[in-house]
């Protein structure tokens, strides 16, 4: 595990330096003024508020969400199994079954940068989106297995909680370098022989810790993550913890807590020891040892306490131990202190040994903790300190322990390595130490006795084989060893040569066994758990390898000799031998004769991996039973052959035999001959069936044969024809396919949809539509040159219809049949580490040659199965491979021997070891999934761009990296759903871009990079299958200049050329300062007409550029290493003329391009790393540019243009403003977003590993800091896009590339709402039942049935007390319920003055009003100052009660049916005015009477159904009149004073639509005013409508600009909180 020396840090430095030109500055900002443009400059220093980072992501603190993080180095990875207490809880008696079940519960845990992830072991984590390559013969069983585990989730968390406080300087995130797991086991086997478990006696917190993570100087404790912490398992053991990671807080000074502890030095290794407290104490405690960089060690005691209702860890530093060998260590490892054991109070501390790997090639072994009696009385001894500390913890006493410092003497200094020690590990028994170093070796040391009292560590073995630095090593215990340490340890190492290697040091065969598959150079970590090797590296992938299978491979090679041929009877052979004998050159012929006399194989086939059939050219036909290792001799295949046509007896010469194929049922074989005969022989030795033969006389010789099924066979003839025979009584040529190419047909694929594909020896791929043809003689519908004139060795058709072919050119080619019936090239991807491909299985498992080896690999997962020396592809061999289960294989290779015999080497993986009687263990099948995470870029990503078409889902992210690769990631609902790799560049990829014509469904993708290359692709958004969606278009390479690796294109941008839907205008800038101007056509047939031109810039390397379409011009802004920004202008009219002319092919682009930049100005003191430009919406004359540089500044530039005719454009004036100190280190990326919100956003990112959001103020041309988010990578590039989330909101998502890609997003809808509110001059809040419900109150839908019944004044007459009590119950609940926080936020916005444009008028009137149907009176809450005078409760308020004197009247007249009631009523003014505002005390159980008349009962001041009570109506109408007067003023202000008005509707559903309708009416009225103003050319105000509703936020009003409609599908309280966070950030 490397911290400082990896390629990550060096690439920083490189990237900063490699484009800096040494030329003295010749140009200056004056060049802009020369062209008579005015440049005004201003500068200010960025102001950061003294607040913490906006870092508590996805919790309440931040507006940003973390959507995804892909790629980035995996620094540590392991597999964990359930702990003993779960194992003990299992009912299962059978140890093997128990073990297998427990093993199936295993989890893969790894750290990628600052993140920790935990995944179930058994789930499939193939690269997303692609077809699962594994097909299994017993799929059902695996299905069952995975289904049982399906409910297990994956978990992910930030290891150190991100609670960073200080801005700048160091990274706010810390990379995890190691983890330990106190609650789980590294093996599912270890406890099987030992059912006791003392850890059971531990108290809660120890059991809750599932991961102790450390990195840098930080250490943190986490629970959960599915790692069996905090779980009491039920009887059947299935209730394993399915819980998220939770950080356990650690106490800091005073009452503060932190999610991590920061210590004095870098941590290399950690051990945890549980400590027992006295009985009855429900606290828990443990000791923690940390091994550190300065060859030192610190011991901490932790105990649990409760702080703010949270269980918190209290740390106490007990001892600092240093070794007398003072040195810097790169690695350190402990031995001793088992986290599953418990230290009891009367026990001595167990000893703890240290092995430290120094920078100077020695390993120092010393004891940090010594278990001896010597120190017993020493006050400072650790044992004493621990006892004292434990006593204090038990007593609950205040613990003040001054940490003691001691020095230990080194015991051993292990020499042998010739470089720094990168990793050092003890074996479980402590008798061995394995280490790795930058000297490319793995070494093993053994503790040996010198005499009775002394021991020494002896170097007993050195493993050579890694071709670069070796980073990590792990002891491996094969699973069959049942956890017992073998006397011969096996080691697995990993390093910078992108391999992991298996070593068996003490066995006779010292083999280094490379495991290839990682896409990166650096494989940082390796661990072995229960026979599964887990590796992780820079490509962001974790790979699993089966140790047992790997080791079987070398052992399970069985060799068989093909039986001797039967006696030769054929006269042909005798003749030949005779001819040889009479020759005149005996010596030479002697040799040939010997060869001829040997056994010749005409064909061999492996059948279902357990039976091998061989035919010889002497007629021999043998089959080998691989279960019994026995040969069966069949009747000679050429004997007694009867013609199928005329039943005549045929004489077949066996020496003409060329090939063999076994029928799918294994009942028969066909042997083909050079004479064109196809001999069908039976393999059933029990019955004597005669062989039959047939042929098509005009076709011979036979090249190869393949069965489609038992009744159909396809025969390849050497002269270019392929015949499909139906094997009827007389075989019938069903289809005769003739290639028509000079090549020989070699391979085919048939997709059962009447499509037949044939690959030939000249690189051609032919497509036959056999369903379309009437005749049985068919010629290809389409032929595609696919494999550069090399053999097309295998073809397959994927489920999606994509045709995948492989060939001797080492490429995997993808094509499809386009709508016009022609084969269309998609992409051709070179397969790494192969020179010629031979086979393809299951769409993605490839077989090919590399040097003299035959290699089988899984191309999806990058997993090499087999590598067998075969002599290379030039050597003639018959071999055959069978596959099942995706990774289980059997392979037979037949090679001729000098003595004339033939030997078959049979290799098989574990699963085919069917000689053993034991069934294959289930768990080993589970491990057939061996890849977790995207195989993403292995090095820094230099550029990212979103590829999106309006209204089309999904979006894609195109990225290019220093590792030469280009990836296209599909983005769905906030995460990456799948990935596609485009062909890699020869050198680094520096720039990517995309553009699309609005009316089409396609996007142009362009990538550029080293060696001045540029590649163009077309992405078809309508294609359902991602694999078929990208088509290669063209490459651009400059001619003339010699392009070296150092000579590269650094940036590229493209725009669609207006008025010509086929063309795009692409500009790239190179390291010589030149611009390459290229026109690219989307039509593949136009490929040759792509034209390019080079424009000379100022000679300084171009680092970034941006293209804009501006009226009739294309503007290119170019940033250079000198800090300059140049502006180039191109006339669109001329370009279109050029694209049209180009169809004749000859008019040069150069004729129409200006050769100098229009203007140039200095924007930065050093290189302009990135720039982003945009036309200012609504202002036709200006463009704004934001740029960032190594000088840590952001420059903002406003350029005004004067257009003088369609061919000339000039800069009128330049305003440049610089924000100094915008970052603590170099800024690398910037993105400017201008949309119709008032918040003009600028995102920046750089080496300080943060993304910062700024607000651009046009008027002052300055940037205001809004917020920063720490990210898990350096931010070397970024891009933004917006998408519609399924929850109804619009999200803005920022993709930041560095070492991996981080996706951050926020809810743009709430941002727009916040912007509208900030601008608002007046605000109408309309609130419905939903708003009330957020406080926990009932809505109408939830009200009891009696509500409708009791909401009727006439019920008062029937039973006044019941009626009153019913309403008082509501009143009580309204009084008791605290209004939710949304009310307070609204109050802060209004009376609190938070909304700056919403100020109370001088006469005291408010610019805000509340209009609500709620009767809970919560807006009247005394704590809210805003709404006392400005609330219109249209249904009254249940907190008020009135005299019921008016209840029987309507419009002053007695109501019908109320006579009896009205007779006792004498409404007086005093009674009418009576109002009782309820308080808790006022509520009683007896009937409340009017305080005035003391006669009539009180009624709630709530408008009921059919309510005509004048007292109620009057009080409501008073409010309503005031509200309407206010509303009229608002309308007038919009019309006359250009005021901005916001209607904020909260929780108004369509059930009781009164309030909803009121909002809509007000908005419509205002919109009409604005509309009419517009028609009268009066600049009026605006109205915005924000509707917040979890289900019904849709707005169906049709209004025109500038009315803004914002729908927020959310509960009101939550939405208001989120809006408030934005308001906080923006004001
Ligand atoms: Zn009264």
UniProtKB/TrEMBL annotation:
Region described as Disordered: spans on this chain: 1-55, 562-592
Assigned keywords, A-Z: Cytoplasm, Metal-binding, NAD, Repeat, Transferase, tRNA processing, WD repeat, Zinc
Any single GO BP term: tRNA methylation
Sites where the protein binds Zn(2+): 1443, 1445, 1566, 1577
Active site: 1435 (proton acceptor)
Domain of life assignment: Eukaryota
Compartment(s): Cytoplasm
GO molecular function: metal ion binding; transferase activity
UniProt cross-references to PANTHER family, sorted A to Z: WD REPEAT PROTEIN (PTHR14344), WD REPEAT-CONTAINING PROTEIN 6 (PTHR14344:SF3)
Entry protein name: WD40 repeat domain-containing protein
């Amino acid at each position: 595990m490397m911290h400082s020396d990896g390629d990550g840090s060096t690439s920083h430095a490189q990237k900063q330096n490699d484009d800096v030109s040494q030329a003295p500055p010749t140009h200056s900002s004056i060049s802009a003024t020369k062209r008579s443009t005015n440049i005004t400059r201003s500068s200010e220093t960025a102001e950061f508020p003294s607040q913490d980072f906006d870092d508590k992501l996805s919790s309440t603190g931040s507006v940003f969400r973390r959507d995804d993080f892909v790629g980035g180095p995996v620094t540590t990875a392991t597999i964990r199994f359930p702990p003993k207490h779960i194992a003990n809880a299992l009912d299962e008696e059978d140890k093997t079954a128990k073990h297998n079940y427990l093993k199936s519960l295993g989890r893969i845990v790894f750290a990628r940068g600052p993140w920790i992830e935990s995944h179930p072991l058994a789930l499939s984590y193939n690269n997303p989106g692609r077809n699962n390559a594994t097909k299994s013969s017993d799929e059902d069983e695996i299905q069952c297995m995975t289904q049982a585990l399906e409910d297990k989730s994956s978990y992910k968390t930030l290891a150190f909680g991100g609670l960073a406080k200080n801005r700048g300087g160091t990274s706010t995130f810390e990379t995890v370098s190691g983890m330990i797991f106190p609650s789980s086991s590294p093996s599912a086997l270890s406890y099987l022989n030992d059912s006791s478990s003392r850890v059971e006696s531990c108290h809660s917190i120890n059991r809750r810790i599932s991961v102790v993570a450390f990195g840098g100087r930080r250490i943190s404790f986490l629970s959960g993550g599915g790692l069996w912490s905090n779980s009491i398992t039920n009887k059947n053991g299935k209730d394993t913890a399915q819980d998220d990671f939770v950080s356990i807080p650690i106490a800091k000074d005073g009452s503060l807590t932190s999610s991590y502890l920061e210590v004095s030095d870098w941590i290399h290794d950690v051990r945890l020891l549980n400590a027992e407290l006295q009985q009855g104490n429900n606290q828990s405690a443990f000791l923690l040892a940390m091994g550190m960089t300065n060859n030192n060690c610190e011991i901490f005691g932790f105990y649990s306490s409760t702080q703010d209702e949270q269980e918190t860890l209290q740390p106490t530093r007990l001892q600092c131990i240093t070794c007398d060998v003072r040195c810097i260590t790169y690695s350190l490892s402990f031995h001793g202190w088992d986290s599953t054991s418990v230290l009891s109070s009367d026990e001595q501390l167990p000893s703890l040994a240290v092995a430290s790997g120094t920078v100077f090639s020695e390993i120092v072994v010393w004891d940090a903790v010594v278990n001896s009696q010597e120190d017993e009385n020493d006050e400072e001894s650790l044992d004493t300190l621990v006892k004292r500390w434990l006593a204090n913890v038990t007593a609950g006493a205040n613990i003040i322990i001054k940490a003691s410092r001691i020095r230990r003497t080194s015991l051993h200094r292990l020499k042998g390595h010739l470089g720094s020690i990168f990793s050092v590990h003890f074996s479980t028994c402590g008798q061995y130490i394995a280490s790795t170093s930058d000297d490319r070796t793995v070494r093993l040391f053994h503790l040996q006795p010198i005499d009775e009292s002394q021991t020494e560590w002896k170097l007993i073995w050195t493993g050579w084989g890694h071709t670069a630095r070796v980073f990590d090593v792990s002891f491996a215990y094969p699973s069959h060893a049942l956890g017992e340490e073998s006397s011969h340890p096996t080691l697995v190492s990993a390093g910078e040569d992108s391999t992991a290697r298996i070593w068996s040091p003490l066995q006779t065969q010292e083999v280094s066994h490379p495991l290839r598959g990682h896409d990166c150079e650096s494989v940082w970590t390796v661990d072995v758990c229960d026979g599964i090797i887990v590796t992780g590296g820079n490509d962001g992938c974790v790979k699993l390898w089966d140790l047992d299978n790997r080791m079987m491979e070398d052992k399970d090679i069985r060799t068989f000799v093909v039986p001797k041929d039967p006696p030769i009877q054929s006269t042909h052979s005798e003749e030949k031998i005779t001819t040889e004998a009479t020759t005149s050159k005996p010596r030479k012929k002697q040799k040939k004769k010997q060869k001829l006399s040997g056994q010749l194989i005409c064909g061999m086939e492996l059948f279902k991996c357990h039976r091998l059939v061989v035919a010889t050219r002497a007629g021999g036909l043998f089959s080998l039973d691989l279960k019994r290792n026995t040969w069966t001799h069949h009747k000679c295949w050429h004997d007694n052959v009867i013609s199928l046509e005329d039943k005549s007896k045929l004489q077949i010469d066996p020496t003409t035999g060329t090939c063999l194929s076994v029928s799918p049922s294994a009942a028969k074989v066909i042997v083909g001959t050079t004479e064109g005969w196809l001999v069908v022989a039976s393999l059933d030795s029990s019955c004597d069936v005669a062989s039959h033969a047939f042929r098509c006389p005009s076709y011979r010789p036979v090249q190869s044969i393949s069965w489609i099924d038992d009744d159909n066979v396809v025969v390849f003839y050497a002269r270019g024809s392929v015949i499909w025979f139906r094997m009827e009584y007389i075989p019938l040529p069903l289809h005769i396919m003739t290639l028509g190419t000079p090549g020989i047909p070699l391979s085919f694929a048939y997709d059962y949809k009447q499509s037949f594909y044939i690959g030939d020896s000249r690189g051609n791929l032919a497509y036959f539509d056999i369903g379309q043809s009437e005749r049985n003689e068919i010629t290809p519908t389409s032929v595609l040159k696919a494999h550069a004139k090399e053999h097309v060795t295998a073809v397959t058709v994927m489920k999606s219809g994509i045709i995948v072919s492989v060939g001797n050119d080492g490429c995997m080619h993808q094509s499809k049949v386009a709508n016009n019936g022609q084969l269309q090239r998609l992409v051709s991807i070179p397969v790494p580490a192969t020179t010629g491909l031979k086979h393809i299985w299951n769409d993605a498992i490839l077989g090919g040659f590399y040097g003299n080896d035959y290699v089988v690999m899984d191309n999806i997962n990058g997993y090499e199965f087999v590598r067998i020396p075969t002599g290379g592809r030039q050597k003639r061999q018959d071999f055959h491979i069978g596959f099942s289960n995706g990774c289980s294989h059997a392979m037979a290779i037949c090679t001729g021997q000098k003595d004339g015999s033939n030997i078959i080497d049979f290799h098989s993986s574990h699963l085919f070891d069917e000689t053993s009687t034991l069934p294959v263990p289930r768990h080993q099948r589970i491990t057939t999934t061996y890849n977790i995470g995207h195989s993403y870029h292995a090095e820094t990503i230099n550029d990212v761009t979103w590829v999106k078409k309006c209204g089309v889902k999904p979006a894609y992210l195109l990225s290019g990296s220093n590792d030469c690769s280009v990836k296209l990631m599909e983005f769905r609902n906030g995460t990456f759903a799948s990935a596609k790799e485009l062909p890699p560049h020869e050198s680094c990829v520096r720039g990517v871009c995309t553009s699309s014509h609005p009316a089409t469904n396609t996007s142009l993708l362009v990538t550029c990079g080293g060696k001045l290359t540029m590649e163009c692709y077309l992405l078809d958004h309508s294609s359902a299958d991602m694999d078929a969606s990208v088509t290669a278009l063209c490459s651009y390479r400059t001619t003339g200049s010699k392009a070296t690796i150092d000579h590269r294109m650094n940036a590229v941008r493209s725009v669609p050329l207006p008025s010509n839907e086929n063309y795009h205008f692409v500009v790239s800038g190179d390291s010589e300062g030149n611009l390459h101007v290229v026109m690219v056509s989307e039509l593949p047939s136009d490929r040759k007409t792509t034209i390019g031109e080079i424009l000379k810039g100022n000679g300084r390397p171009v680092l970034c550029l941006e293209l804009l379409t501006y009226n009739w011009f294309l503007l290119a802004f170019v940033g250079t290493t000198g800090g300059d920004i140049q502006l180039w202008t191109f006339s669109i009219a001329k370009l279109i003329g050029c694209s049209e002319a180009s169809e004749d092919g000859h008019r040069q682009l150069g004729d129409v391009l200006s050769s100098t930049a229009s203007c140039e100005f200095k924007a930065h003191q050093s290189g302009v790393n990135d720039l982003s430009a945009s036309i200012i919406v609504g202002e036709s004359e200006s463009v704004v540019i934001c740029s960032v540089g190594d000088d840590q500044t952001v420059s903002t530039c406003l350029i005004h243009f004067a257009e003088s005719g369609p061919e000339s454009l000039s800069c009128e004036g330049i305003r440049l403003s610089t924000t100094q100190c915008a970052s603590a280190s170099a800024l690398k990326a910037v993105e400017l977003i201008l949309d119709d919100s008032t918040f003009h956003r600028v995102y920046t990112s750089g080496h300080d590993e943060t993304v910062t959001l700024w607000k651009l103020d046009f008027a002052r041309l300055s940037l205001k800091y809004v917020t920063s988010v720490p990210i898990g990578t350096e931010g070397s590039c970024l891009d933004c896009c917006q998408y519609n989330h399924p929850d109804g909101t619009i999200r803005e998502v920022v993709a930041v590339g560095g070492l991996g890609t981080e996706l951050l997003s926020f809810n743009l809808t709430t941002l727009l709402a916040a912007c509208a509110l900030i601008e608002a001059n007046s605000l109408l809040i309309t609130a419905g039942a939903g708003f009330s419900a957020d406080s926990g109150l009932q809505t109408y839908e939830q009200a009891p049935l009696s509500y409708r019944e009791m909401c009727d004044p006439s019920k008062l007459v029937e039973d006044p007390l019941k009626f009153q009590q019913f309403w008082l119950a509501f009143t009580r609940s309204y009084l008791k319920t605290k209004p939710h926080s949304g009310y307070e936020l609204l109050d802060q916005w209004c009376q609190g003055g938070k909304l700056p444009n919403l100020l109370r008028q001088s006469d005291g009137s408010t610019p805000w009003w509340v209009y609500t149907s709620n009767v809970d009176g919560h807006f009247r809450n005394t704590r809210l100052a805003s709404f006392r005078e400005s609330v219109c409760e249209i249904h009254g308020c249940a907190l008020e009660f009135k005299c019921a004197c008016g209840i029987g009247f309507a419009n002053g007249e007695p109501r019908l049916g109320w006579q009896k009631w009205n007779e006792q009523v004498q409404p007086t003014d005093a009674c009418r005015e009576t109002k009782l505002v309820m308080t808790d005390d006022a509520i009683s159980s007896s009937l409340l009477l009017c305080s005035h008349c003391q006669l009539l009962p009180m009624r709630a001041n709530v408008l009921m159904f059919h309510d005509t009570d004048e007292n109620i109506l009057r009080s409501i109408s008073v409010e309503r009149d005031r509200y309407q007067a206010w509303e009229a003023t608002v309308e007038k202000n919009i019309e006359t004073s250009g005021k901005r008005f916001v209607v904020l509707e909260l929780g108004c559903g369509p059930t009781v639509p009164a309030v909803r309708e009121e909002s809509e009416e007000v908005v419509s009225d205002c919109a009409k005013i604005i509309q009419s103003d517009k028609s009268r050319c009066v600049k009026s105000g605006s109205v915005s409508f924000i509707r917040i509703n979890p289900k019904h936020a849709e707005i169906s009003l049709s209004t025109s600009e500038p009315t803004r409609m914002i729908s927020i599908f959310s509960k009101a309280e939550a939405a208001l909180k989120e809006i408030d966070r934005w308001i906080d950030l923006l004001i």
